[in-house]
Amino acid sequence: MKSKKINNNDCLDNLNSLHNEIKRLSSKLEEQQTLLNQYKSLLFKFELLCEKTDRAYCICDSNGSILLINQNAANFFGFTPSELLNQNLIDINNRTELFTASGKR
């Protein structure tokens, strides 16, 4: 096999292309970091709002797994919020027998 020789211009072109790609990716990473920081800030404010309210709040994913629950909701079920995180709301409801089939207490 013959090895292909690369001339200086090809090397410079490749280096410039790599440099431009690194700049583009760095810029994209900075944008993503800014969005992540904004999300974290909003999530913190939302969690604080949920904790300061006198109502019970619980946020679940599409499978019923608890992602966020405030103290009032945890008290309602007789657990602490940390005990309920990632638990399935339907399973907890069935175990605690707090609701009838109609969904009312």
Counted beta strands: 2
Note the overall shape.
Answer: elongated
Strand content: 5-15%
Distance between the amino and carboxyl termini: 80 Å
**Helix percentage:** 55-70%
- Any low-confidence stretches, pLDDT <50, length ≥5? 99-105
Count helical runs.
4
Average pLDDT reading: 86
What's the order of the H and E elements? HEEHHH
Structural class: mainly alpha
Rounded radius of gyration (Å): 26 Å
Strand order of the largest sheet: 1-2
Biggest pleated-sheet summary: 2 strands, antiparallel
Summarize the structure.
This protein has 105 residues and is mainly alpha-helical. Helix content is 61%, strand content 7%.
Mind explaining what this structure looks like?
With 105 residues, the chain is mainly α. Helices cover 61% and strands 7% of the residues. The protein contains 4 helices and 2 strands; from the N terminus they run H-E-E-H-H-H. The protein has helices at residues 8-52, 71-77, 81-84, 89-96, and strands spanning 58-60, 66-69. It has a two-stranded antiparallel ribbon with strand order 1-2. It starts with 7 loop residues before the first helix and ends in a 9-residue tail after the last helix.
Task: Describe the structure using short key phrases.
single chain; 105 residues; mainly alpha; two-stranded antiparallel sheet; 4 helices; 2 strands; disordered C terminus
What's the arrangement of secondary structure elements?
Elements (H helix, E strand, L loop, with lengths): L7 H45 L5 E3 L5 E4 L1 H7 L3 H4 L4 H8 L9
Antiparallel strand pairs: 1-2
